[in-house]
Design goal:
Elements: E1 11-14, E2 20-28, E3 34-41, H1 44-60, H2 72-83, H3 90-108, H4 118-130, H5 135-154, H6 181-191, H7 197-206, H8 210-214, E4 221-222, E5 227-228, E6 233-237, H9 246-249, E7 295-299, E8 310-311, H10 316-334, H11 355-368, H12 376-390, H13 395-402, H14 407-413, H15 418-432, H16 450-460
Antiparallel strand pairs: 1-2, 2-3, 4-5, 5-8, 6-7
């Protein structure tokens, strides 16, 4: 009779099927029953190696939990629904869901979480780049997947985060293209012909983000002390189902087949034909009778630093007072049709300005001012930081005005000007190099006698 094995000791034996089997005691399961893991191999040496690896994970406290591991698609849904939704802002969560549905699940969604290998991720990234996705888009997908795998590793669902073994594509930082002082003046001259003139003054002259400008409310404007308190921002959020059966609610809108070539239904869509719905689709929440948490919504800024008060330039104050009086007159003229939201910049009926319409107006103003095309961020936030730097304002002060948390972030917003660099290097040269006197016209005289010059001429002949 063989002696009884000690507690937590593993066993290795040859089975009737011709395979070598190893049994490792890992502890107990959630229900209190023993947690015994199984490994098998063709040779005793191979099964001993697998048993030792499992024992090492157990002894280090890094052993994965018992049970069948979820697929990447199942874990991403769990992560976004139950974990990330508690921390992420609504817009960020929508972006995570979008990249998960469109990139991660089609790419590696069917792999089991513990079987996912670095090669799978590398092939997915290569395919995304070949399809025309920007490296910055692929990098964002990598970060989302890496974060989800990090949580799975922390909870011992997997033994290693394979995303840390993959190098994502290198992304070149987008170069800022702010207005020059002359362009900023031309832009504001074109905006002065519109009722939204002060909206663009705040964006270009104070460096407010689009959401912060459109979400600014009169209750957070202190004209007496000349301060803006950007406590809110305006964002367009994705609608969510309020019903109990999201899939059935959008049944009439589901499309499971791709559109035919030269589709006429979606020919007016800027992004082309939408992708077919996945099996069990729960989208189309905008058509839900009980939809919630979507549309234009006032939300809190992302960081606490973003809510710091910003001084209003004194020349702006009379224009703001005039803007408020004009808005009050519109409120009286609209009567019952006025929809009060308390915003500083509104539509003629009192509703907040749609960010999409705001972006289109920016492009129209660029055309009217004869300025080449650029991003809205370049024409507002980057412009304010760059012009403040040209006026001699130091970086810590610019950081406070733009409400950045790190000064390195502020430096990326400030772009140097070539004429300022040329002037700086001229002054550098003047400081180090001696000044050259201008040449004067002089006559060269020699000390040779008349007889010596005559002898030299004879010798040459």
């Amino acid at each position: 009779m063989s002696p009884r094995k000690a507690n937590m000791e593993s066993s290795i034996y040859l089975g009737a099927d011709g395979w070598w089997h190893g049994r490792v005691t890992m502890g107990v399961k959630n229900d209190g029953s023993p947690d015994r893991r199984h490994r098998r191999a063709k040779t005793p040496a191979e099964v001993r190696r697998k048993v030792r690896e499992l024992e090492a994970l157990r002894d280090k406290g890094r052993a994965p939990k018992a049970g069948r591991k979820p697929t990447v698609a199942q874990w991403m849904e769990t992560y976004l629904t139950e974990i990330a939704s508690l921390k992420l802002k609504p817009r960020s969560l929508d972006d995570y869901w979008s990249k998960t549905r469109n990139d991660i699940i089609p790419g590696v969604g069917q792999h089991r979480l513990d079987k996912l290998a670095p090669e799978h991720l590398e092939r997915m990234y290569r395919a995304m780049l070949d399809e025309g996705h920007a490296p910055s888009h692929v990098l964002k997908v990598h970060r989302i997947l890496s974060r989800a795998l990090k949580i799975a590793h922390r909870r011992r669902i997997i033994s290693e985060n394979v995303a840390t073994l993959v190098d994502p594509p290198t992304v070149d930082e987008t170069e800022a293209n702010p207005f020059t002082t002359e362009e900023a003046k031309a832009f504001l001259e074109a905006a002065a012909k519109r009722p939204t003139f002060m909206r663009w003054c705040v964006g270009v002259g104070m460096g407010f983000r689009q959401g912060e400008t459109l979400g600014l409310r009169w209750s957070y404007v202190d004209l007496e002390n000349e301060l803006f308190h950007p406590q809110w921002q305006l964002q367009r959020l994705t609608w969510r189902h309020g019903c109990k059966d999201p899939h059935g609610c959008g049944a009439r809108l589901h499309r499971f087949e791709p559109c035919p070539p030269n589709c006429q239904t979606h020919k007016g869509y800027k992004r082309g034909c939408p992708k077919p719905c996945p099996k069990g689709c729960t989208r189309h929440a905008s058509a839900c009778p009980e939809r919630k948490n979507g549309g234009l919504v006032f939300t809190r800024p992302k960081t606490k630093k973003s809510r710091n008060p910003v001084p209003i330039p004194p020349p702006f104050v009379p224009y703001l007072v005039e803007h408020k009086e004009r808005q009050d007159a519109l409120r009286v003229a609209a009567g019952d049709s006025w929809e009060e939201c308390g915003a500083v910049f509104t539509r003629p009926d009192g509703r907040p300005i749609d960010p999409r319409a705001d972006w289109e107006e920016f492009k129209e103003l660029l055309t009217e001012a004869r300025i080449d095309d650029r991003r809205l961020y370049d024409g507002s936030r980057h412009t304010a930081g760059t012009i403040l730097n040209e006026l001699g304002v130091d970086m810590p002060t610019i950081m406070e005005i733009l409400r950045h948390t790190q000064i390195s972030q502020t430096r990326r917003y400030v772009k140097g000007r070539s004429h300022l660099s040329k002037d700086a290097m001229r002054r550098m040269g003047d400081a180090f190099m001696p000044r050259q006197e201008p040449p004067t016209e002089t006559r060269t005289e020699t000390g040779d006698s008349r007889a010596a010059r005559a002898r030299r001429r004879r010798r040459v002949r």
